[in-house]
Amino acid sequence: MKRQDRNAGPFRPAKLLGWALAMSLLFGLIGAGEYVEDRLRIVRNHINEKPVSGQIVLVAVDEKSLRDVGRWPWPRSRYAQLVEAIEKAKPKKQVHDWLFSERTTAREDKRLEQAFASSGDVTVGYLPRVGPQQGSRTEIGALPEFERHVKLASTGMYYNYANEVWRLPGGARYGSTVIPSMAMALASVEKPTTDEFRVDYSYSPESIPVVSASDVMAGRIPATMLTGKTAVIAPVSNRLGDQWNVPGWGRISGVYIHMIGAETMLDGAPVDFGWIPAFLLAAATLLLTARLGPTTQLAAISATLAVLITAPLVSERSQIFFDITPGMFALLWVAVGIVIEQARRRGLTNVVSGLPNLTALRRSRGERNRPLVVARVINYPQIVSTLTIAQEKALVGQITSRLRVGSEVSTIYQGDEGIFAWTVPSTTAIGHHIEALHALFRSPAKVDRRPFDIAISFGVEIGSGRTLANRLQSALVAADEASSEGLRWKYHDPERLKDVDWRLSLLSQLDDAIDHGQVWVAFQPQLDLRTNLIRGAEALARWTHPEKGPISPVEFVTAAEQSDRIEKLTMFVLDKAVAEAARINREYGDFDMAVNLSARMLTDKSLLSKVKEVLDRHGLDPARLTLELTETAAMASGSGTAPLFGLRDLGVNISIDDYGTGLSTLEYLKKIPAGEIKIDQGFVKSMRDHRSDLVMVQSTIALAHSLGRRVVAEGVETRELLDMLVAMKCEVAQGFVVGRPSSVNDLTKRLLAERKRRVA
After folding, report:
1. Where are the extended beta strands (E) located within 260-323?
2. d(CA 611, CA 646)
3. SS in 3 state form for 219-249?
4. What pLDDT, in 10s, does the model give residues 486-523?
5. In angstroms, rounded to a whole number, what is the distance separating the alpha carbons of residues 581 and 382?
6. Measured in Å, how far apart are the chain's first and last C-alpha atoms?
7. Torsion angle, alpha carbons of 688, 693, 697, 699, to 10
8. In this predicted model, what pLDDT tens digit does every residue of 34-85 receive, in sequence order?
């Protein structure tokens, strides 16, 4: 294995490019960019907006016509009057967007037949439909007596997921022939095919000439408005239905789609090249710039993106269409990868020497299981204080060249203040290796002919299975100990990690920590998902040891519960939480406080009086306090739940904590007088990726609501999870996306800022 292969996260542009092109190809094949493509095309259509030719006039059966003529459907004798009134104006043709497929009375049907017979070029609607049996077909066209005098045009359209029509058929099969689509009939295309074509929605529907059908029948419009033009008769009233989403123009009558399709064909048959050209352009750009520097490659990608965005703006004016999102996807994939890699590498090198720094070592994957050696140049600060940056770089070069002698080390990591680190193969005789290195430093280093004696010590961590960050600290400690003890080098002693005395004395130290102020209370905010305001917080115990720093709550709380020594900690947290809740309620308005209650405290007969005394002493309304009980607190006999009923009668809210991890049964819910159910964070965190967890959360919320109980979801760490909970009608959310546990000062600052926003 090459040394580079072991190093952490080497940048592989070929791999990035391969993934980008493969995913972009799949992106194009499955049409994943359809939504974005359509939105971009809508923007371009508005930029390229243009009026229609005016050769097609809409005779609209609108609200005015329905008021003037009467309620729809009109008698066919009345419709015949409309046909004859239009014909008097001598139009080029009449196209009726109606299906005259049903019979009325013989007299009425005969009257309309006569009107069709006496008119010139008349086209009416036809709609082919697939029947209920597979392969069967039902053709909805005009009555036979009408078909003798009219032509047929298909009113069928292709629509997508958003009920938008971007493409229209050129025609439809009718028996052994192909009849034109409504758009083709309006455009007077002589030889239609069943091929589809893209509709150019840069034609503004608002520019289409429109006259009311009742005005035509009453002779209230000049005949010249229809003379020599194609008259299309169609419904536009909302009451008559036939409403479609016209992309970029809103929901209007479907006849506008046919008319804009006709205008598209009048301007020349559109050409649609699809997504392949943009994909090929992007692929060519990425392949040709793959070996260039990241700055040059990003510039080339930006230029190609600009071409992809602007080229359709020009080409669509000539009815030439192509899709750009697969190409953009490939370019953006690579661009984001380059930017991320640049940002990652920017913080992984020493600014003076250019060597990888200790952060790079900590992130390295290939170095994890190898023995780690650290060298500390003890007098490094004194030496470099007399050097320029260039001279310091030269000094580092001499140090690293000596450290590489006689070993297969190729990567040396440099830290601040004269720290150097590297790993060696597990087969290396480390003692001989370091003794030889130490001997090399007996002779001084020379920088610009100035000699400098280098005092150096070494520390070794042979591989304890811990993280590199921890191992590095251990090796540094060993190097410092070697220096203080007058040794050349020293191993890290893993036995120092086994702090048995600490674990044995943890509980007694916890009691002392509470008395001496080392234990404090953090508050994690809870968000009301109905108002999007902070409604309360959960009080959490935290322990900051003066020597060991923060102690994990899991460690000391679990130990206290298992040893029946949880009461002191619980009452300490309860007292602090109630005091702060009372103050917040006085200063900021209604605010709830939740405190964990161990099941072991339910056997304490004085629990109710203790809680009441704390509430009375701080003046907090019991309704503002919630005591959270884990599911395991449900004793099978139910005898341990009596104090809970007393607390409920006092006015305190009871919450079932970590719901879903234990006895999630209706029997358990019946035993506990809880007004709130708190879903365990394990289910919430993974409900996006695991259907079983999603079902668990959904069913818990539904069950809680059916029982009249509020639901709190904990472990909400992303905005996506928050949105999912809102959709499920969960009442309260708690987690990192809402806020991390913090001090009461930080909590009140947030409440103050929130109140100011509401006032503003």
Report:
1. 271-272, 320-321
2. 11
3. CCCCHHHCCCCEEEEEECCHHHCCEEEECCC
4. 788 888 866 555 554 565 577 778 888 888 888 999 99
5. 55
6. 64
7. 130
8. 888 889 999 999 999 999 999 999 999 999 999 998 888 899 999 999 999 9
